[in-house]
Structures are given as structure tokens and as C-alpha cells.
């Protein structure tokens, strides 16, 4: 049995997704990288994630829709950390009100990201 935390990684940029996946694995996380929102929902329904690391926009869904789905399916126990490049004035507050546990802005230091994922 593994003690690794399973992170569901939703990132639309393939290069960044691969970099994040490799970096998180080096820090001891098990990383699942579904191709779209529907696959992410299936993983969560099957209990396949301890936490979600997500960009705001990804195929077939966005972070707001994912957070709404988690609420509707009583899965707010799965913490969501949002990683975004959208430095819009209200985006952080809107995402937190929608249910995100953390909102980080790109570029982010990996050590800060890892600390946040360990804390949620």
C-alpha cells in the first residue's frame, strides 16, 4: 500500500502538464493526468484523487464547472488548487467562493506549489 498522495492534474498546456507531472512525482506525489473534464470526473467518482491541481480552462470543462460538479456530487472533500495565469482582479476571489482551496498565479515556484498541495 502506498502513502503517496494522488494528485489529479488538469492542465491544458501539454508541456506544462508534463513538467508539473514530473516535478510532482519527484516530490513524492502520484500524478494522474486525465485528458479532459469528463475523464477527471470519472477518476474522482472512483476515488482516484486526494487533491486536484487544475488550470482554469481545460478540454470540455473549466475550473468553475469542475467546482460546481464537485458540490453537486458531494465531493468537496477533494481539495482543489487552481493554477492560473489570469491575473484578473476578481478571479482569485471568484474561484475561492466557488470552492477552490487555493489559487496560485503562474509562474509559481515548485516549492510553493508542493507546500500548498501537501497542506490541503
What would a concise description of this structure say?
The protein has 120 residues and is an alpha/beta fold.
General description of the model:
The chain has 120 residues and is an alpha/beta fold. The chain has one domain: Response regulator (Rossmann fold), CATH 3.40.50. The chain is 42% helix and 21% strand. It is built from five helices and seven strands, in the order E-H-E-H-E-E-E-H-E-H-E-H. The chain has a five-stranded parallel beta sheet, sandwiched between helices. A hairpin with a 2-residue loop joins strand 4 (57-58) and strand 5. It is globular.
CATH superfamily: Response regulator
Q: What is the helix/strand order?
A: EHEHEEEHEHEH
In the CATH classification, which architecture applies? 3-Layer(aba) Sandwich
**Measured distance between first and last alpha carbons:** 21 Å
Per DSSP E runs of 2 or more residues, the count of β-strands stands at 7
Output the radius of gyration. Answer: 13 Å
* Major beta sheet, strand line-up: 2-1-3-6-7
Fraction in helix: 40-55%
Which whole number gives the mean pLDDT? 91
Profile the largest sheet: 5 strands, parallel
CATH T-level fold name = Rossmann fold
Derived from helix and strand composition plus strand pairing, the structural class reads alpha/beta
Strand share of the residues? 15-25%
Q: Give the low-confidence spans.
A: none
Identify the CATH class: Alpha Beta
Give the count of helical stretches.
Answer: 5
Number of domains: 1
Topology:
Elements lengths: L5 E5 L3 H13 L3 E3 L4 H9 L5 E4 L2 E2 L2 E2 H10 L7 E5 L6 H8 L3 E4 L4 H10 L1
Parallel strand pairs: 1-2, 1-3, 3-6, 6-7
Antiparallel strand pairs: 4-5
